[in-house]
Amino acid sequence: MSKTSIYGLTFSELQAWLVEHGQLRFRAQQVWDWLYKKRVDSFTGMKNLNKDCVELLETHFHMTTLEQEIRQESSDGTNKFLFKLADGNIIETVLMRFHYGLSVCVTTQVGCNIGCSFCASGLLTKSRDLTAGEIVEQIMHVQKFLDEKGKGERVSHIVVMGIGEPFDNFDHLMNFLYIMNDSQGLNIGARHITVSTSGLAHKIYEFADKDIQVNLAISLHAPNNELRTSIMKINRAFSIEKLMESVKYYLDKTNRRITYEYILLQDVNDHKQEAEQLANLLYNHRHLAYVNLIPYNTVDEHIQYQRSTKESIQKFYETLKGRGINCGVRWEQGADIDAACGQLRSKQLKKQQAAKK
Protein backbone atom coordinates (compact mmCIF):
# COMPACT_ATOMS: atom_id res chain seq x y z
CA MET A 1 0.00 0.00 0.00
CA SER A 2 1.35 3.40 -1.01
CA LYS A 3 1.42 5.88 1.86
CA THR A 4 0.97 9.63 1.53
CA SER A 5 1.71 12.54 3.85
CA ILE A 6 -0.96 13.14 6.50
CA TYR A 7 -0.29 16.86 6.01
CA GLY A 8 -1.72 16.72 2.50
CA LEU A 9 -5.33 16.48 3.68
CA THR A 10 -7.51 19.51 4.32
CA PHE A 11 -9.61 19.32 7.47
CA SER A 12 -12.76 18.38 5.54
CA GLU A 13 -10.86 15.76 3.55
CA LEU A 14 -9.54 14.21 6.77
CA GLN A 15 -13.04 14.18 8.26
CA ALA A 16 -14.45 12.42 5.20
CA TRP A 17 -11.56 9.93 5.11
CA LEU A 18 -11.93 8.99 8.77
CA VAL A 19 -15.69 8.49 8.48
CA GLU A 20 -15.18 6.40 5.35
CA HIS A 21 -12.79 4.20 7.35
CA GLY A 22 -15.17 3.68 10.27
CA GLN A 23 -14.04 6.48 12.60
CA LEU A 24 -16.14 9.24 14.13
CA ARG A 25 -15.99 12.74 12.63
CA PHE A 26 -14.66 14.36 15.80
CA ARG A 27 -11.45 12.35 15.41
CA ALA A 28 -10.39 14.80 12.70
CA GLN A 29 -10.30 17.64 15.22
CA GLN A 30 -8.19 15.54 17.56
CA VAL A 31 -5.73 14.58 14.81
CA TRP A 32 -5.37 18.18 13.62
CA ASP A 33 -4.82 19.37 17.16
CA TRP A 34 -1.94 16.92 17.53
CA LEU A 35 -0.51 17.81 14.11
CA TYR A 36 -0.73 21.59 14.12
CA LYS A 37 -1.08 22.70 17.75
CA LYS A 38 0.89 20.13 19.73
CA ARG A 39 3.03 19.25 16.69
CA VAL A 40 3.84 15.66 17.60
CA ASP A 41 6.27 13.57 15.54
CA SER A 42 4.39 10.26 15.53
CA PHE A 43 0.86 8.91 15.41
CA THR A 44 1.51 7.00 18.64
CA GLY A 45 2.04 10.38 20.29
CA MET A 46 -1.64 11.20 19.71
CA LYS A 47 -2.64 10.07 23.18
CA ASN A 48 -6.42 10.55 23.03
CA LEU A 49 -6.90 8.45 19.87
CA ASN A 50 -7.98 4.84 20.23
CA LYS A 51 -5.63 2.08 19.12
CA ASP A 52 -7.61 1.29 15.97
CA CYS A 53 -7.43 4.93 14.79
CA VAL A 54 -3.69 5.14 15.42
CA GLU A 55 -3.08 1.90 13.51
CA LEU A 56 -5.31 3.11 10.67
CA LEU A 57 -3.33 6.32 10.35
CA GLU A 58 0.01 4.50 10.54
CA THR A 59 -1.09 2.12 7.78
CA HIS A 60 -2.12 4.83 5.33
CA PHE A 61 0.00 7.90 6.09
CA HIS A 62 3.50 9.16 6.73
CA MET A 63 4.12 11.75 9.43
CA THR A 64 6.98 13.20 7.43
CA THR A 65 8.41 12.68 3.97
CA LEU A 66 11.20 15.29 4.26
CA GLU A 67 14.70 14.79 5.61
CA GLN A 68 16.88 17.78 6.39
CA GLU A 69 20.17 17.60 4.48
CA ILE A 70 21.63 21.05 5.16
CA ARG A 71 20.73 24.13 7.18
CA GLN A 72 22.59 27.38 6.62
CA GLU A 73 22.13 30.29 9.03
CA SER A 74 22.97 33.86 8.10
CA SER A 75 24.18 36.59 10.42
CA ASP A 76 20.83 38.37 9.85
CA GLY A 77 18.88 35.36 11.15
CA THR A 78 17.89 33.94 7.77
CA ASN A 79 17.88 30.13 7.70
CA LYS A 80 18.04 28.22 4.44
CA PHE A 81 17.03 24.53 4.57
CA LEU A 82 17.83 21.86 2.01
CA PHE A 83 15.41 18.93 2.27
CA LYS A 84 15.60 15.50 0.67
CA LEU A 85 12.27 14.09 -0.44
CA ALA A 86 11.26 10.44 -0.19
CA ASP A 87 12.25 9.87 -3.84
CA GLY A 88 15.72 11.37 -3.32
CA ASN A 89 15.02 14.75 -4.92
CA ILE A 90 16.11 17.86 -3.03
CA ILE A 91 14.33 21.18 -2.48
CA GLU A 92 14.94 24.49 -0.68
CA THR A 93 12.95 26.30 2.00
CA VAL A 94 13.92 29.62 3.58
CA LEU A 95 13.04 31.19 6.95
CA MET A 96 13.40 34.99 7.01
CA ARG A 97 13.17 37.43 9.91
CA PHE A 98 11.39 40.74 9.40
CA HIS A 99 10.17 43.46 11.75
CA TYR A 100 6.61 42.22 11.20
CA GLY A 101 7.30 38.54 11.92
CA LEU A 102 8.81 35.31 10.65
CA SER A 103 8.23 34.49 6.99
CA VAL A 104 8.86 31.18 5.23
CA CYS A 105 9.46 30.87 1.51
CA VAL A 106 8.30 27.47 0.23
CA THR A 107 9.02 25.45 -2.90
CA THR A 108 6.22 23.94 -5.00
CA GLN A 109 8.07 21.91 -7.65
CA VAL A 110 11.25 19.88 -8.11
CA GLY A 111 12.98 22.08 -10.67
CA CYS A 112 11.28 24.65 -12.87
CA ASN A 113 10.16 24.79 -16.50
CA ILE A 114 9.65 28.55 -16.70
CA GLY A 115 13.25 29.05 -17.78
CA CYS A 116 13.98 32.62 -16.69
CA SER A 117 17.48 33.26 -18.00
CA PHE A 118 18.74 34.89 -14.79
CA CYS A 119 17.39 32.39 -12.25
CA ALA A 120 19.21 29.63 -10.36
CA SER A 121 15.93 27.77 -9.76
CA GLY A 122 15.51 26.95 -13.43
CA LEU A 123 18.97 25.52 -14.03
CA LEU A 124 17.32 22.10 -13.93
CA THR A 125 13.95 21.54 -15.59
CA LYS A 126 10.98 20.35 -13.58
CA SER A 127 10.94 16.65 -12.78
CA ARG A 128 7.68 16.70 -10.84
CA ASP A 129 5.21 18.71 -8.78
CA LEU A 130 5.28 18.60 -5.00
CA THR A 131 2.19 17.28 -3.27
CA ALA A 132 0.25 19.52 -0.91
CA GLY A 133 1.66 17.43 1.95
CA GLU A 134 5.25 18.04 0.86
CA ILE A 135 4.62 21.79 0.74
CA VAL A 136 2.90 21.83 4.15
CA GLU A 137 5.74 19.77 5.64
CA GLN A 138 8.20 22.53 4.77
CA ILE A 139 6.27 24.89 7.01
CA MET A 140 5.92 22.29 9.75
CA HIS A 141 9.63 21.48 9.72
CA VAL A 142 10.51 25.16 10.11
CA GLN A 143 7.92 25.61 12.87
CA LYS A 144 9.31 22.61 14.76
CA PHE A 145 12.82 24.07 14.34
CA LEU A 146 11.52 27.24 16.01
CA ASP A 147 9.78 25.19 18.72
CA GLU A 148 13.07 23.53 19.61
CA LYS A 149 14.61 26.94 20.31
CA GLY A 150 12.06 27.41 23.10
CA LYS A 151 11.40 31.10 22.44
CA GLY A 152 7.74 30.70 21.57
CA GLU A 153 8.26 31.97 18.02
CA ARG A 154 5.87 31.02 15.25
CA VAL A 155 5.71 31.24 11.50
CA SER A 156 3.51 34.26 10.84
CA HIS A 157 3.87 34.79 7.09
CA ILE A 158 4.30 32.58 4.02
CA VAL A 159 5.59 33.43 0.56
CA VAL A 160 5.17 30.87 -2.20
CA MET A 161 8.20 32.06 -4.15
CA GLY A 162 10.64 29.15 -3.94
CA ILE A 163 11.66 26.75 -6.68
CA GLY A 164 8.99 26.15 -9.33
CA GLU A 165 5.94 27.94 -10.70
CA PRO A 166 3.12 27.68 -8.12
CA PHE A 167 0.31 28.09 -10.66
CA ASP A 168 1.75 25.17 -12.64
CA ASN A 169 0.90 23.05 -9.59
CA PHE A 170 -2.45 24.69 -8.97
CA ASP A 171 -4.52 22.04 -7.19
CA HIS A 172 -1.79 21.10 -4.69
CA LEU A 173 -1.08 24.80 -4.17
CA MET A 174 -4.71 25.54 -3.33
CA ASN A 175 -4.92 22.66 -0.83
CA PHE A 176 -1.74 23.94 0.80
CA LEU A 177 -3.26 27.42 1.11
CA TYR A 178 -6.49 26.08 2.61
CA ILE A 179 -4.57 23.97 5.12
CA MET A 180 -2.30 26.84 6.21
CA ASN A 181 -5.21 29.26 6.55
CA ASP A 182 -7.52 26.90 8.46
CA SER A 183 -8.34 28.26 11.92
CA GLN A 184 -8.15 24.73 13.33
CA GLY A 185 -4.56 24.35 12.14
CA LEU A 186 -1.69 26.86 12.10
CA ASN A 187 -4.24 29.59 11.39
CA ILE A 188 -1.96 31.75 9.27
CA GLY A 189 -4.05 34.64 7.96
CA ALA A 190 -4.72 34.67 4.23
CA ARG A 191 -3.46 38.24 4.03
CA HIS A 192 -0.17 37.04 5.50
CA ILE A 193 0.30 34.63 2.58
CA THR A 194 1.60 35.66 -0.86
CA VAL A 195 1.70 33.53 -4.00
CA SER A 196 4.04 34.59 -6.79
CA THR A 197 3.54 33.64 -10.44
CA SER A 198 5.71 34.28 -13.47
CA GLY A 199 2.56 35.22 -15.34
CA LEU A 200 0.41 32.19 -16.17
CA ALA A 201 -2.51 34.34 -17.25
CA HIS A 202 -5.11 31.56 -17.45
CA LYS A 203 -4.37 30.59 -13.85
CA ILE A 204 -4.67 34.19 -12.65
CA TYR A 205 -8.30 34.08 -13.84
CA GLU A 206 -8.81 30.82 -11.94
CA PHE A 207 -7.12 32.17 -8.83
CA ALA A 208 -9.36 35.24 -8.88
CA ASP A 209 -12.43 33.00 -9.06
CA LYS A 210 -11.33 31.10 -5.93
CA ASP A 211 -12.19 34.24 -3.93
CA ILE A 212 -9.42 33.62 -1.40
CA GLN A 213 -7.83 36.59 0.39
CA VAL A 214 -4.28 35.40 -0.32
CA ASN A 215 -2.00 38.06 -1.85
CA LEU A 216 -0.87 37.82 -5.47
CA ALA A 217 2.58 38.76 -6.75
CA ILE A 218 3.64 38.73 -10.40
CA SER A 219 7.25 38.31 -11.52
CA LEU A 220 7.31 40.93 -14.26
CA HIS A 221 10.99 41.94 -14.61
CA ALA A 222 10.44 43.87 -17.86
CA PRO A 223 7.87 46.41 -19.12
CA ASN A 224 7.76 45.43 -22.82
CA ASN A 225 7.43 42.19 -24.77
CA GLU A 226 10.78 42.27 -26.54
CA LEU A 227 12.78 42.65 -23.36
CA ARG A 228 10.61 40.33 -21.28
CA THR A 229 10.74 37.56 -23.89
CA SER A 230 14.55 37.84 -23.99
CA ILE A 231 14.85 37.09 -20.26
CA MET A 232 11.61 35.16 -19.55
CA LYS A 233 10.52 32.61 -22.14
CA ILE A 234 7.08 32.41 -20.50
CA ASN A 235 6.33 35.70 -22.26
CA ARG A 236 6.14 33.82 -25.58
CA ALA A 237 3.03 32.02 -24.31
CA PHE A 238 1.59 34.84 -22.22
CA SER A 239 2.51 38.23 -23.61
CA ILE A 240 2.30 41.34 -21.48
CA GLU A 241 -1.02 42.14 -23.17
CA LYS A 242 -2.47 38.74 -22.18
CA LEU A 243 -1.01 39.09 -18.71
CA MET A 244 -2.47 42.53 -18.15
CA GLU A 245 -5.91 41.35 -19.34
CA SER A 246 -5.84 38.70 -16.62
CA VAL A 247 -4.67 41.35 -14.15
CA LYS A 248 -7.66 43.51 -15.05
CA TYR A 249 -9.99 40.56 -14.41
CA TYR A 250 -8.30 39.85 -11.07
CA LEU A 251 -8.57 43.48 -9.96
CA ASP A 252 -12.20 43.79 -11.04
CA LYS A 253 -13.04 40.54 -9.24
CA THR A 254 -11.09 41.07 -6.00
CA ASN A 255 -10.17 44.76 -5.72
CA ARG A 256 -6.94 43.53 -4.11
CA ARG A 257 -3.50 45.04 -4.59
CA ILE A 258 -0.98 43.17 -6.74
CA THR A 259 2.77 43.22 -6.09
CA TYR A 260 4.97 43.29 -9.18
CA GLU A 261 8.41 41.75 -8.67
CA TYR A 262 11.10 43.46 -10.74
CA ILE A 263 14.68 42.15 -10.55
CA LEU A 264 17.11 44.88 -11.63
CA LEU A 265 19.76 43.62 -14.06
CA GLN A 266 22.59 45.98 -14.86
CA ASP A 267 22.26 47.58 -18.32
CA VAL A 268 19.43 45.17 -19.21
CA ASN A 269 16.18 46.41 -17.64
CA ASP A 270 17.32 49.13 -15.24
CA HIS A 271 17.30 52.28 -17.40
CA LYS A 272 15.06 55.31 -16.96
CA GLN A 273 13.34 54.27 -20.21
CA GLU A 274 12.20 50.95 -18.69
CA ALA A 275 11.08 52.74 -15.52
CA GLU A 276 8.92 55.07 -17.60
CA GLN A 277 7.48 52.14 -19.59
CA LEU A 278 6.70 50.30 -16.35
CA ALA A 279 4.96 53.35 -14.95
CA ASN A 280 2.86 53.61 -18.13
CA LEU A 281 1.96 49.91 -17.94
CA LEU A 282 0.70 50.15 -14.36
CA TYR A 283 -0.59 53.69 -14.33
CA ASN A 284 -4.31 52.97 -14.81
CA HIS A 285 -4.42 50.76 -11.71
CA ARG A 286 -1.56 52.38 -9.77
CA HIS A 287 -3.68 52.55 -6.59
CA LEU A 288 -3.73 48.71 -6.59
CA ALA A 289 -0.12 48.21 -7.66
CA TYR A 290 3.09 47.92 -5.69
CA VAL A 291 6.45 47.41 -7.41
CA ASN A 292 9.05 45.43 -5.48
CA LEU A 293 12.44 46.41 -6.90
CA ILE A 294 14.92 43.59 -6.27
CA PRO A 295 18.69 44.00 -6.66
CA TYR A 296 19.96 40.90 -8.47
CA ASN A 297 21.78 38.12 -6.63
CA THR A 298 24.50 36.94 -8.99
CA VAL A 299 24.52 33.28 -10.05
CA ASP A 300 27.69 31.56 -11.31
CA GLU A 301 25.88 29.98 -14.27
CA HIS A 302 24.47 33.31 -15.43
CA ILE A 303 27.60 35.45 -15.64
CA GLN A 304 26.00 37.65 -18.31
CA TYR A 305 23.94 39.33 -15.60
CA GLN A 306 25.16 41.63 -12.87
CA ARG A 307 23.46 43.62 -10.12
CA SER A 308 22.47 47.14 -11.03
CA THR A 309 24.46 49.92 -9.41
CA LYS A 310 23.01 51.70 -6.40
CA GLU A 311 22.74 54.82 -8.54
CA SER A 312 20.68 53.02 -11.19
CA ILE A 313 18.44 51.45 -8.56
CA GLN A 314 17.84 54.83 -6.93
CA LYS A 315 17.07 56.51 -10.26
CA PHE A 316 14.66 53.72 -11.23
CA TYR A 317 12.92 54.05 -7.86
CA GLU A 318 12.66 57.81 -8.11
CA THR A 319 11.26 57.62 -11.63
CA LEU A 320 8.47 55.30 -10.52
CA LYS A 321 7.70 57.37 -7.44
CA GLY A 322 7.63 60.51 -9.55
CA ARG A 323 4.98 58.90 -11.74
CA GLY A 324 2.79 58.01 -8.77
CA ILE A 325 3.72 54.31 -8.61
CA ASN A 326 4.03 52.87 -5.11
CA CYS A 327 7.32 50.99 -4.88
CA GLY A 328 10.21 49.97 -2.67
CA VAL A 329 13.61 48.31 -2.86
CA ARG A 330 13.92 44.83 -1.35
CA TRP A 331 17.50 44.20 -0.32
CA GLU A 332 18.30 40.53 -0.01
CA GLN A 333 18.49 38.58 3.21
CA GLY A 334 21.01 35.84 3.84
CA ALA A 335 23.70 37.63 1.81
CA ASP A 336 26.46 35.69 3.59
CA ILE A 337 24.94 32.31 2.63
CA ASP A 338 23.56 31.03 -0.71
CA ALA A 339 21.18 33.95 -1.09
CA ALA A 340 19.70 33.47 -4.57
CA CYS A 341 16.67 31.20 -4.83
CA GLY A 342 17.78 27.72 -5.89
CA GLN A 343 21.46 28.44 -5.34
CA LEU A 344 22.00 26.08 -2.40
CA ARG A 345 20.18 23.29 -4.23
CA SER A 346 22.22 23.89 -7.37
CA LYS A 347 25.52 23.72 -5.47
CA GLN A 348 24.49 20.51 -3.71
CA LEU A 349 23.49 18.84 -6.98
CA LYS A 350 26.88 19.79 -8.48
CA LYS A 351 28.63 18.17 -5.51
CA GLN A 352 26.56 15.00 -5.92
CA GLN A 353 27.34 14.82 -9.63
CA ALA A 354 31.04 15.40 -9.03
CA ALA A 355 31.10 12.63 -6.42
CA LYS A 356 29.70 10.16 -8.95
CA LYS A 357 32.49 10.77 -11.46
From TrEMBL:
Domain Radical SAM core, first and last residues per copy: 98-330
Record note on cofactor: Binds 1 [4Fe-4S] cluster. The cluster is coordinated with 3 cysteines and an exchangeable S-adenosyl-L-methionine.
Pfam families: Radical_SAM, RlmN_N
Top-level division of the source organism's lineage: Bacteria
GO cellular component: cytoplasm
Catalytic reaction equation(s): adenosine(37) in tRNA + 2 reduced [2Fe-2S]-[ferredoxin] + 2 S-adenosyl-L-methionine = 2-methyladenosine(37) in tRNA + 5'-deoxyadenosine + L-methionine + 2 oxidized [2Fe-2S]-[ferredoxin] + S-adenosyl-L-homocysteine; adenosine(2503) in 23S rRNA + 2 reduced [2Fe-2S]-[ferredoxin] + 2 S-adenosyl-L-methionine = 2-methyladenosine(2503) in 23S rRNA + 5'-deoxyadenosine + L-methionine + 2 oxidized [2Fe-2S]-[ferredoxin] + S-adenosyl-L-homocysteine
Cofactor annotation: [4Fe-4S] cluster
GO molecular function: 4 iron, 4 sulfur cluster binding; metal ion binding; rRNA (adenine(2503)-C2-)-methyltransferase activity; rRNA binding; tRNA (adenine(37)-C2)-methyltransferase activity; tRNA binding
Function as written in the Swiss-Prot or TrEMBL entry: Specifically methylates position 2 of adenine 2503 in 23S rRNA and position 2 of adenine 37 in tRNAs.
Protein name according to UniProt: Probable dual-specificity RNA methyltransferase RlmN
Taxonomic source organism: Ornithinibacillus sp. 4-3
